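TL;DR need structure tokens for one chain.
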Amino acid sequence: MMYEKFDSLRRRISLRILVWGPSTKSDVPEAAKRREIRDVLRKAGHDVYFSEELIFDKTYTVPVNLQESIQLSEADAVVCLASDFGAIQEAQEFALRAREFLLWLSGKARGKYTDRGLGAQLRSRGRPPVFFAPEDLESCVVATASLEWVEARRMQYLAVELEKERLDEEYPRRFLNS
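>> reply
TL;DR here they are.
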């Protein structure tokens, strides 16, 4: 009974998530992994999108980075598989502005520019980048770890919601208007 109540509460929390990475039209393993991350997160009940799906001006009279900035303002979290130039640029420009940001970097990036710059900044905020190896793209580890990371954020939101409910019961709003 307690688990059913918990599961019902958990399902009330659905995060809006952007998944950044290489073009989904690409045949590289990282693009397939990006699609897998999206699918796993959607299956868990989250609202998950690629930025390409949300572009509102495909003629780009509104620059793509401005459109993505607007998308970011509506997102609860970003999972970024920064394996190509575009995704690395998105991470460099937006990671520190995101509410929650999971940065996946190739193991080849360890100690390099993005790791020593953005990676160091993310570490100082308690959000270190996660490095992946080529064999990780063949397994479910990247998608599974992304789901675990998102679910941890879901639990944070749930804890806040439960605390709000408890406080509302303990201190009814009628006292605030007196």
